[in-house]
Amino acid sequence: MPSPLRIWHPFTNAALDPAPIEIERAEGVWLHARDGRKIIDAVSSWWVNLHGHANPRIAAAIAEQARKMEHVILAGFTHEPAEELAAGLRKWVAPELTQLFFSDDGSTAVEVALKLAVQSFSNVGRPGKCEIVALEHGYHGDTAGAMSVSDDSPFTEPFRAMRYAVHRVHAAYCYRCPVGLKRESCHIECVGKLKKLLEERGEHIAAVIVEPLLQAAGGMIVHPVEFLKEVRALCTKHDVLLIADEVLTGFGRTGKMFACDLAGVAPDLMCLSKGITGGFLPMGATLCGEHVAAAFRSENRLHTFYHGHSYTGNALACAAATASLQIFNDDPVFDRIAGIARIHGERLAELKKYAVVGDTRQIGTIGAIELGADDAGYLSAMRPKLYAFFLEHGVLLRPLGNVVYVLPPYVISPEELHRVWDVIEEAVTTLF
Ligand SMILES: Cc1ncc(COP(=O)(O)O)c(C=O)c1O
Q1: Nearest CA to ligand 1 atom 7
Q2: CA 143 to ligand 1: nearest atom
Q3: Does residue 1 register a pLDDT over 90?
Q4: Mean pLDDT calculated for residue range 151-173
Q5: What residues line ligand 1, using a CB cutoff of 6 Å?
Q6: Residues near 410 by Cβ (< 8 Å), separated by ≥ 6?
Q7: Which residue of 56, 93, 216, 240 is 20 to 30 Å from 354, comparing CA positions?
Q8: Percentage of the chain with pLDDT > 90?
Q9: 336-356, pLDDT tens digit by residue?
């Protein structure tokens, strides 16, 4: 008898972590386990779910599409679900963005943006303008290029040799200000490192990649809008492309459809994934402006973007994404988002009084607390304790080390959301 083929779970150490919980059914914010437990999904299943699990409208759209056509090659062909999705997104994305390239997930959407940026300059005879700038504390995915632009972390540690060199500049992490200032009296001096770099090496730099306004996996670090505005202005001044990785922040998470909208900024390239299909199917998309796309419309065949994944523009994923956008059009989604933001604000204000709560942070539907810890960071010993405590109390939360955050599907009720914060408050007051 061959040994059984065991599933290797992501971000999981089979020697240290508890056995996976088998989920049989999910509805709204609730995960129903085979052993009878009911768990609130307060992290939207790795930040993908928007309108609740098993949303009937999205499920029906996928079923209907599956009966017509599941998938066809997108090179040399197109289809209604892909065209419909592009048309649906038009209403929401900055008018400066005019082309959309499909991929599979957040990491590949980032890879596409980086490659488009570099090749766009190469195609117009500037191959030396190929360097990339990224932020401290950034996280952009797990593939090699996305890992390269992500900051050093336990996730990247074994792969030093596989990561290409990038310029690393300060992020606006106000709680641990990189230039030792206080937000109340600063003038976004943290952007000075980027400013100096672009002044010195701008002609070699193709792009700056940022997670706009919220660095998520790096610890739910919320930036002042002025930081993003300054980065945009510096990129424009030095003819450097701004890549906004909206893989997490997209589709309402920060209170507007896209985080860039909050700062009134249009990026040159934008990466989307996670919520794009409402959390039903994998899909990535990279949007870019005409000035980028124009470099690829060339008589020279070598100027083609030779990149494409097998499931590019998958019709089922497109149908799910269009159904999700229809929910934005038809339902009071932004009222739900505002309701979540209100409750986060109230509960965070209360949590500030506990000595162990070092910082509270919020942007839209994302509320976070950074706990004081001697071993701050993803590997903090607080993490496994907190994770187990939350699950024992029927809530799925995945602390980023000593940072606990809530990022729920938009359909969470006020009672359910208060329940999540009650459990967090209990952990804060009883565990440490
Ligand atoms: C900002 C950001 N970019 C990219 C990614 C990578 O997305 P994926 O896990 O779908 O490859 C993530 C994932 O968490 C992310 O938060």
Answers
A1: 106
A2: 11
A3: no
A4: 97
A5: 105-107, 110, 139-141, 211, 216-217, 245, 247-248, 273
A6: 50, 51, 52, 252, 333, 336, 337, 340, 365
A7: 216
A8: 100
A9: 999 999 999 999 999 999 999
